Amino acid sequence: MSLPIEDYALIGDCEAAALVGRDGSIDWLCWPRFDSEACFAALLGTKEHGRWLIGPADPNAARSTSRRYRGDSLILETRFESPTGAVVVIDVMPPRTGDSNLIRIIVGERGTMEMRTELVIRFGYGSAIPWVHHLPDGTLRAIAGPDQLVLRTTVPVEGVNRHTVGTFTVAEGESVTFALSYAPSHLLPPIPMDPFEGLADAEAFWEEWSSRATVEDEEERTTILRSLITLKGLTYAPTGGLVAAPTTSLPETLGGMRNWDYRYCWLRDATLTLLAMMNAGYFDEAAAWRDWLLRSVAGSPDQAQIMYGIAGERRLIEVELDNLPGYENSRPVRIGNGAHDQLQLDVYGEVMDALYQAHRGGVANSADAWALQTEFLKHLETVWRFPDRGIWESRGEPRHYTYSKVMAWVAFDRGIKLAEEASLPGPLEHWRAIADEIHHEICINGYDPALGSFVQSYGSTWLDGSLLLLPTTGFLPPDDPRIASTVRTIEERLVVNGLVMRHDPAETETGLEHGEGAFLACSFWLADALVMLGRRDDAQQLFNRLLAVRNDVGLLSEGYDVEARRLVGNFPQAFSHVALVTTCLNLRRLAKPAQQRGGQNAMRAIKKP
After folding, report:
1. Which of 586, 590, 478 is nearest to 524 (CA)?
2. Residues 530 and 430 in one domain
3. Is 0.85 surpassed by the pTM of this model?
């Protein structure tokens, strides 16, 4: 059975990622890309679905376990201590210069400790048992279909019941190394990497990257840097695409069916990701994300999707895997995502807003980019009146979601502003007329005077966590009484034990049963809204509550089960970490991302130096 989600930590090389449990077991790894088939899938089943354990030979003898990241990096150190000794297991995936490597170094700190390794390779999401053999140099090679893994270590290992196992003793001052490498099976085994050189390369990479953060306030830096490093670790370096999470099918409620594949790139993450990166000084990453965005949506605007693969792939066909029982028996396990071809009007606003914010931040626009944007607006003019599936990707009947309409207004608003500020050609008066029409319709149909709140969709009385974003988009100023009353109503109906649910408990028409944890991004959005309403103390209190939800190494998932006090949903979740960075900056800076996005005149955009 898998560990609690909060007992995992992330390692990665900015092309693939693994989850390492507190017990020293790597229970999830998709190689060679974030979206490749898993070779370790115990996270969604048992150890027979693939894992790699390095831990005390007698787990009961270990009296304590602690872990940390080495400095500002994705190098994980897990310390096991027993009456006879203490060791540290260092886990790292060095940045790639060729083949991809996963290195594990066990360092003796005190006395002696007997350790064991159990390597269970199962390609194809736990379904394919490889052919394993030893090469003349002692290297262990595992092959099945298109994949091969190669293990190099000085520890004697043997095959037992299709597991590769070994025991070894580590004394104070000694080090034992393991290096696991991936390559396509039709190629020769990967060139050996010296484990200590790989560790040094990774340390130098992360030290240089973290030093680029333009965060002068030490408390602010301490709070946000782990989230920024996590976002970097979820970025696919060759293209700049940012995956929503490195996992699939971790449930939004334990034992439930809301289990989705998040190893793709969502357009709705674009604006907040850009602002988080630019405000922290990472303009190269912001530019790479903007470029991925432009390449992915290039083509006919009527074919724009809400999400794409890490290289811009469009076909993300959803299937269910019957061989995996799911995390804590949460079925089904899905790969691919059937929501990729839904109509969700908000993505047009996200694209236009992201490109506008990139321009304001000093990331250069281009004639081709502007031509694409004008085509986007031309298409949106014909579809904004349609019902859609909404930001939460409902699998029920389409509706006129209020937030979707607001983002349609954002699209035209940002197009007008970009054209004016960059002296770009466009039918500005025509766009203004459309924006005014959308704005008026939302204020009439999306606001319920009796409830005193904007509502999830036209004609409903349900609330929705996405409505907390209305003031940050600039749709209405934060001092508009309709905004203040909406925030108060959401606090009354959607807040449970201090955290925000994204769905109204009364809402029943999304096509799937609810029963999910608090949605962490929505909780950060409430803090942002409170800052804009001048309720800074309340916002700080909520932010502190959210910081306490992080696990011991500073990671957040998608949601939080307030009753079980456990993280739920895919992990670690980029959207949650982007929201954490944004809220921290909103609380501590004069130039706040919320006002930057909304375009309030009193606040400046962060400019590239």
Report:
1. 586
2. yes
3. yes
